[in-house]
Design a protein that fits this description.
Function: Catalyzes the phosphorylation of the beta-carboxyl group of aspartic acid with ATP to yield 4-phospho-L-aspartate, which is involved in the branched biosynthetic pathway leading to the biosynthesis of amino acids lysine, threonine, isoleucine and methionine.
CATH topology of one domain: Carbamate kinase
CATH architecture of one domain: 3-Layer(aba) Sandwich
Number of helices: 12
Shape: globular
Number of strands: 20
Structural class: alpha/beta
CATH superfamily of one domain: Acetylglutamate kinase-like
CATH class of one domain: Alpha Beta
Catalytic activity: L-aspartate + ATP = 4-phospho-L-aspartate + ADP
Largest sheet: 8 strands, mixed
Strand content: 15-25%
Radius of gyration: 23 Å
Strand order of the largest sheet: 3-6-2-1-9-11-12-10
Oligomer: single chain
GO molecular function, one term: aspartate kinase activity
Enzyme class: transferase
Distance between the termini: 29 Å
Helix content: 25-40%
InterPro entries: AceGlu_kinase-like_sf (IPR036393), ACT-like_dom_sf (IPR045865), ACT_Aspartokinase (IPR054352), ACT_dom (IPR002912), AKii-LysC-BS (IPR041740), Asp/Glu/Uridylate_kinase (IPR001048), Asp_kin_monofn (IPR005260), Asp_kinase (IPR001341)
Length: 425
């Protein structure tokens, strides 16, 4: 008997019919002789609707109360799913994150899991029940408060449960057939990848691929959890996230493709610190100010200083949601840091190409830049790692950039990809 953890996103449980379809799939997995634990997201766009409602009440919702509000979405879907399973003659029990033993730090809105104590879940499994857990939420032992894990939190919940329970596999169900070479809503010719390394998946997730969130991939890699990303709308095999790509014979390693996938992100902004004295310590001072806000910085570019003035410009990208607090902090520290002014640009797009084969292949950068040049798309910033090249373009050119780069690297499939629900979650 295998233990399988399954995660169903909001589009998979968007309405009553969808919930019944998901319940049928879960029951089939149980009747095949497996123990089943399910992590479930809020129905459809419930979380976004609750956020909008909170901002109608107050422009600055209290973080603690916001978490109390947002966790109601998953409680609704978990209870309805348990009811649907019970109606099929199979025992099911639903649990909130705190009941399931998801212990987190005290950071409201973006809490991190510090421990999982699934005592009640093991008892339910021993009793032969299917276990349904509300994703995205946990509990802090010190404050005794409910917390939420941030975007993609249900993925992280599922992976954490799989690690704590020693599951054989963690299945992430979504509205596409697996992980694609690009977002099929943007690049219709994208095709499904059968296997992808966790290293490549981390880079794709960091670059904006939304089918799996980076925290879930990191957790799975750290704890050795096998991930299988597949569609909740059919029984086809999806994409396996593995440590390495093995060949047909045990121990063989297949030479990895140069480029595995293309990702795009429209949720970043760029801040340029203008007129920074080009002397030791100034960059450290600026980024110390930024670090104190807790913002996540992505790409950083410093220009060559002007000989006449001894001043330089430093540009960096960060999530749009963190732009205002970073600008406020930098303005407050302008006197001590000694820069001249700040520029803010939230009309940018980030494109990344990812592939483990880049380590041993020359000319990838030239091919990428040539494809963008031929399409008349300008590059504003460039960043690289061993297996990734990222560039910043204008926001209104990002989708076209993804399509031309996907074609340039020979990733186009023969048929258009199928998207069943339209949200990717």
């Amino acid at each position: 008997m295998a233990l399988i953890v399954q995660k169903f996103g909001g589009s998979s449980v968007a309405d009553a019919e969808s919930i019944k379809r998901v319940a049928k799939r879960i029951v089939e997995t149980r009747k095949a002789g497996n123990d089943v634990v399910v992590a479930v997201s809020a129905m459809g766009d419930t979380t976004d609707e609750l956020i909008d409602l909170a901002h109608e009440v107050t422009p600055l919702p209290d973080p603690r109360e916001m978490d109390m509000l947002l966790t109601t979405g998953e409680r609704i879907s978990m209870a309805l799913l348990a009811m649907a399973i019970k109606s099929m003659g199979v025992e099911a029990r639903s649990y909130t994150g705190s009941q399931a033993g998801m212990i987190t730090d005290a950071q409201h809105g973006s809490a991190r899991i510090v421990d999982v104590t699934p005592v009640r879940l093991r008892e339910a499994l021993d009793d032969g029940a299917i276990v349904i857990v509300a994703g995205f939420q946990g509990f802090n032992r010190d404050t005794k408060d409910i917390t939420t894990l941030g975007r993609g939190g249900s993925d992280t919940t599922a992976v954490a449960l799989a690690a704590a329970l020693g599951a054989d596999v963690c299945e992430i169900y979504t509205d596409v057939d697996g992980i694609f070479t690009a977002d099929p809503r943007v690049v219709p010719k994208a095709h499904k990848i059968d296997r992808v390394t966790s290293e490549e998946m981390l880079e794709l997730a960091a670059a904006g691929a939304k089918v799996l969130y980076i925290r879930a991939v990191e957790y799975a890699r750290r704890h050795g959890v096998t991930l299988h990303v597949r569609s909740s709308f059919n029984n086809n095999e999806g994409t396996w996230v593995v440590e390495s790509i093995d060949g047909p014979n045990e121990g063989d390693t297949v030479e990895e493709p140069i480029i595995t996938g293309v990702a795009g992100d429209l949720n970043e902004a760029k801040i340029t610190v203008v007129g920074v004295p080009d002397v030791p310590g100034k960059a450290a001072e600026i980024f110390t100010i930024v670090a104190q806000t807790g913002a996540n910085i992505d790409m950083i570019v410093q220009n060559v200083s002007a000989a006449a003035t001894g001043l330089t410009d430093i540009s960096f990208t960060l999530p749009k949601s963190e732009g205002e607090k970073v600008l406020t902090a930098l303005r407050a520290g302008q006197g001590s840091a000694g820069f001249q002014s700040l520029q803010y640009d939230d009309q940018i797009g980030k494109l990344a190409v990812v592939g483990a084969g880049m380590r041993t292949s020359a000319g990838v950068s030239a091919q990428l830049f040539r494809a963008l040049s031929d399409a008349g798309i300008n590059i504003e910033m460039i960043s690289t790692s061993e297996i990734r090249i990222s560039v910043v373009t204008r926001a209104d050119t990002l989708n076209e950039a993804m399509r031309v780069v996907h074609t340039a690297f020979g990733l186009d499939g023969e048929a258009e990809a199928v998207v069943y629900a339209g949200t990717g979650r």
